[in-house]
């Protein structure tokens, strides 16, 4: 699952549909791989020699294999600076515990119903940190980690996947036990166990892991890596008018703090003028922490008639969760949205100052009374409006029934002749409400991309990635950005990709585990062509006068048989998505669609749209190989081949340009 910078290691791959893999590739150029050769010079299947450059940054990187179907989904490959070993056999008892040196990492797989044991030597009062990376490196393992004495008696236990901070009570040997919470195991239950020495005054740091989808919206552009100031304890005044434990601040501010100890309430106070507007943003959950920040802003009112000059507090605003910019799928009978959540329990809101005076901010973790961890940190930024946006995208999912949410985001691996749609979601910051144009560059040969913009005031757009029918097999790390006009300047922001760590075939029994991906890998395969290509009959923009109807002729390129004679199609693209569903005939070579711009109320301008739906194709690799560029119908002999398989897939048309002219101009 990883290796030490500056080393050469051997890796073995497992997975589905990777038997014909031609190369192992990584998201960072400092990691390279060559096929393993046996003594006779022949390639050893699924084994590679990986070279990690000495200057390769520590952390996680993406690993994929290139196959005839294109690039596979990715797996985390970790790089660290300490020595690493691989456990090849289970160590199921203290007697056969695997010896591990302090300041090293072991790569292992959990056996079914098993407990792995490791042994290390420690001196009295030596501080040792034991960290098990599992969920953060795409494993299905819910790790339970135990430190025991030499006889196997438990001394320290962690069942929530956190690290263990251990100080040896005496010189001697100690045992580390690792098992899965419910004693599951197998190839998908892998982990990296690190044992490190740490000085008494240092804060432990977890091994690098993947980020949750909502982390795409942090940090704001230009924010310094470290905060300008920190909270100063005691500043834990409660919800009464306590002045002795209030930390004065000056706006704008950038403050780092912690939700510690349990039930901690951090209180800050600032002065402001009537009519001022301040934006406040708090990050904690997006830092990968199990926190739920909540903020109450109050105006401090001095009771002048009271001889004791008491103060009272008047609520101004309470800020809590940032909702997802788009609806998230619920665990319902029918699919009702993507199984990704771009929202967060962090804070982003606007404070309008109603009167001159002093204002008090109370910041707490909504469930902080149940946890007391000094690592539960936060970053609070209060600023004048800095309009901006952040973007995240994922593969368009099918709407299936019976609780199947199709939570199996595909890599951007295209068949020649296919178009793939990505949903793009915008996180708008500090009042930015403008158009966002989407684009993708540095694509493989024969591949082009067209963004369907995120319009002003909206949060969702589409990116269409298309491989020409003659596109050669290959891959590239693409650049995916959004551009917008903000305060008279054109700004460009990267778009992150999100994907499922594992396919989820039954959402009732398994919770989807999406994560952010570290790159934008796009590929074209050589084994198959698309079973159906739908494209406009002409490449030129289709012109129509606002308020009139326009008929769009479509050409079909079929290379497979389908289940059913039609496919229900929807329209994607701003100002056209309200067009009702229509049936596209699968057995015809052409069709047409009429759009009523009067009903759609489409304003003059230039637009890109596409049509999409779900169809069940009868795949046959032999038939596709016999007709690689796509005839009107597969041959009758090929259609009879017994290897045909029904596969449900999303069919997306190539992008269609429409120019809507003002009513007075023809």
Automatic annotation (TrEMBL):
> What's the domain of life for this entry?
Bacteria
What is the protein named? Serine protease
């Amino acid at each position: 699952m990883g290796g030490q910078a500056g080393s050469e290691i051997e890796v073995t791959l497992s997975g589905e549909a990777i038997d014909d893999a031609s190369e192992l590739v990584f998201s960072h150029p400092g990691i390279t791989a060559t096929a393993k050769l046996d003594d006779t010079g022949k390639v050893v299947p699924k084994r590679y020699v990986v070279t990690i450059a000495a200057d390769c940054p520590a952390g996680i990187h993406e690993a994929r294999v290139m196959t005839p179907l294109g690039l596979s989904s990715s797996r985390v490959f970790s790089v660290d600076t300490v020595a690493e070993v691989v456990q090849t056999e289970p160590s199921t008892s203290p007697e056969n515990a695997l010896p591990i040196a302090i300041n090293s990492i072991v790569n292992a797989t959990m056996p079914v119903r098993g407990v792995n044991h490791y042994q290390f030597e420690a001196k009295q009062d030596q501080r040792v940190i034991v960290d098990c990376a599992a969920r953060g490196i795409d494993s299905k393992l819910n790790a339970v980690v135990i430190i025991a004495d030499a006889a196997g008696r438990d001394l320290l236990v962690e069942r929530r996947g956190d690290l263990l901070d251990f100080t040896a009570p005496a010189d001697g040997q100690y045992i580390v036990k690792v098992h899965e919470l419910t004693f599951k195991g197998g190839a998908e239950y892998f982990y990296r166990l690190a044992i490190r020495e740490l000085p008494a005054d240092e804060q432990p740091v977890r091994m690098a892991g993947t980020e949750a989808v909502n982390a795409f919206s942090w940090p704001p552009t230009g924010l310094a890596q470290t905060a300008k100031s920190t909270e100063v304890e005691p500043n834990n005044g409660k919800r009464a008018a306590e002045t002795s434990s209030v930390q004065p601040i000056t706006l704008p501010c950038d403050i780092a703090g912690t939700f510690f100890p349990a039930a901690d309430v951090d209180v800050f106070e600032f002065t402001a003028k009537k009519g001022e507007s301040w934006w406040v943003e708090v990050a904690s959950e997006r830092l990968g922490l199990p926190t739920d920040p909540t903020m109450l802003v109050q105006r401090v009112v001095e009771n002048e008639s009271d001889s004791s000059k008491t103060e009272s507090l008047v609520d101004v605003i309470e800020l809590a969760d940032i909702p997802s910019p788009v609806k998230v799928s619920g665990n319902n009978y029918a699919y009702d949205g993507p199984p990704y959540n771009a929202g967060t329990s962090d804070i982003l809101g606007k404070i309008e100052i109603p009167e001159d005076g002093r204002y008090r901010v109370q910041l707490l973790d909504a469930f902080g009374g149940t946890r007391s961890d000094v690592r539960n940190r936060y970053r609070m930024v209060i600023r004048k409006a800095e309009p901006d946006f952040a973007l995240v995208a994922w593969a368009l999912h099918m709407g299936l029934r019976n609780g199947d949410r199709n939570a199996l985001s595909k890599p951007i691996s295209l068949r020649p002749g296919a178009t793939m749609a990505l949903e793009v979601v915008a996180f708008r910051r500090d009042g930015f409400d403008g158009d966002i144009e989407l684009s993708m560059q540095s694509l493989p040969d024969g591949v082009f991309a067209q963004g369907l913009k995120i319009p002003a005031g909206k949060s969702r757009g589409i990116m269409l990635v298309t491989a020409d029918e003659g596109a050669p097999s290959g891959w590239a790390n693409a650049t995916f950005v959004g551009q917008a006009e903000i305060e008279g300047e054109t700004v460009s922001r990267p778009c992150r990709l999100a994907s499922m760590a594992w396919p989820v075939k039954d959402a009732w029994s398994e919770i989807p585990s999406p994560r952010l991906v570290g790159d934008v890998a796009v590929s074209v395969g050589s084994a198959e062509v698309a079973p159906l290509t739908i494209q406009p009959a002409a490449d030129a923009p289709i012109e129509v006068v606002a308020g009139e109807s326009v008929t769009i002729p479509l050409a079909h390129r079929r290379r497979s048989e389908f289940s059913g004679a039609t496919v229900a199609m929807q329209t994607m693209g701003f100002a056209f998505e309200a067009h009702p569903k229509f049936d596209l005939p699968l057995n015809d070579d052409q069709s047409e669609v009429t759009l009523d711009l009067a009903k759609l109320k489409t304003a003059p301008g230039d637009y890109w749209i596409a049509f999409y739906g779900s169809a069940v194709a009868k795949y046959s690799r032999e038939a596709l190989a016999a007709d690689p560029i796509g005839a009107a119908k597969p041959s009758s002999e090929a259609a009879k081949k017994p290897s045909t398989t029904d596969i449900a897939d999303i069919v997306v048309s190539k992008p269609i340009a429409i120019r809507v002219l003002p009513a007075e101009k023809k």
